[in-house]
Amino acid sequence: MSTGFGRLWTAQSVSSLGDGVSHAALPLLALTLTRDPMALAVVTAAGTLPWLLFGVLGGALVDRWDRRRTMWGMDAARAVLLATTAAAAALDMLSIPLLAAVGFLLGLGGLFFDTAATAYLPDLLGRDPALLERANSRLRGAQTAMSGFAGPPAGSALLAIGRAVPLLADAVSFMLSALLVRSLPALPRPVPEIRESLFRQARAGASYVFRDRVLLGLALRPAVGNIAFLAVETVLALFAHDRLGIDTFGFGLLLTAEATGGLLGAGIASFLGRRLGTGSALSCTAAVEGLAILGLAAAPNPYVAGLALAVCGAGMGATMVLGPSLRQTIVPAHLMGRVASTSRMLAMCAAPIGAFLGGWLATTYDIRTPLYAAAVLLLAMTAVTASMTSNRRVEAALRAAAATADPVGAPAHSASKDRARKSAADLL
Predict the structure, then answer these.
(1) Which of 94, 144, 147, 272 would you label with 174, given CA atoms 20 to 30 Å apart?
(2) Contact call for residues 420 and 131 (beta carbons, < 8 A)
């Protein structure tokens, strides 16, 4: 593909397959070391801490750095990290602190990669709303299919061969992704703001999010959602094993059910946006997620649990297409890295709260309690943010973005317009 979108899509697909392998394997590896819910919460939360510590500054750095180089460098670094961890597993040197440290470093690499990729895509596609929505649908669909649909069963199966095998497979996927990303076209960067310190640039990006009600609403949804989802994820392996009687391979299939729904949700996101309007569609998907987690909490058997996770995945899949596409359309190019990282930081900083909340509720009350609490949080969040991202506000933001030129990012914008036109056939 002349624009490089095909290579970007392939790179993220390969990397997502490795992520899916680790997503199933890491909780199961932790379970071989401990059955303490709070210890499991430490491992789960570690990967989100980089966003708490470096989220906004990371976005400011990405707006200064070459975005393509940032992406492939972070993937290469994560490949080395996982290869080293695989060696530790082969030597029987794994521990809860080591898994937590690996999770933290993987999260740090993910911070820079995801922020750079979010900022790179709009310039690659000329900031065209329709192209961005279709591109994000394809990227989200591939990510869901690989990280949830194919990866978890593969991770469970590879873990049966040896504890180092799934980690090594993820390392290989990151290295392949790095090589593909390195071959992407280099795009002109927005002109940096003159004589501004890194901290002032970071603050400007954060302020932009908090002053805009639509952007703030888009940021609050995943922030509250991550509290809920991490509370569930922290205890999901234990819940599946102790209450549903699911074995190691069955746990991988349970995650696959969620991914199946996510794939469907990503596929129908554009349809929902057209029929309901982006704002109303986002409110609907959030409500669906809350009701689905409520169904999971009350599930009497693995089949009902799988169905509930599939419905939840569908809501998440659609949300993860509609929300980022809207943000990429309405945010100026020179602020994209900082706005994306600020929004993601709010979401990721909330995740440790959810992880420890899930561990505490399970320890203090019952293994189902974190699931019921998560459902209540999701439904409350839907009610609070519905007016912030209403159709009326979204349409006003789109009109303002279309009418306002971005002089700082204009050269990159103009060049990528031509690439966007050439890539339209590839995305249809």
Answers:
(1) 94
(2) yes
Q: How far apart are CA 33 and CA 45, in angstroms?
A: 17
Both tokens of residue 24? 């199933």
Identity of residue 374: A
CB atoms within 10 A of CB 382: 22
The C-alpha atoms of residue 328 and residue 133 are separated, in whole angstroms, by: 9
Fill in the DSSP letter of residue 93.
Answer: -
3-state secondary structure of 99: helix
Q: Is 139's pLDDT higher than 60?
A: yes
- What single-letter amino acid sits at 147? S
Among 355, 252, 240, 259, which Cα is nearest to 305's? 240
pLDDT of residue 144: 66
Supply 43's token pair.
Answer: 């491992």
Residues 6+ apart with CB under 8 A from 274: none
**For residue 413, pLDDT beyond 60:** no
Over residues 31-39, mean pLDDT: 79
Whether the per-residue pLDDT at 427 is higher than 50: the answer is: no
Whether the CB-CB separation of 171 and 82 falls below 8 Å is answered with yes
> How many whole angstroms separate alpha carbon 270 and alpha carbon 318?
8
Describe the crossing of helices 278-297 and 248-276 by its angle, rounded to 10 degrees.
Answer: 150
- Indicate if the pLDDT at residue 84 is higher than 90: yes
| Cα separation, 88 vs 91, whole angstroms | 5
**Nearest of 362, 388, 367, 175 to residue 279 by alpha carbon:** 388
Please give the Cα distance from 120 to 189 (Å, whole number): 9
pLDDT of residue 192: 54
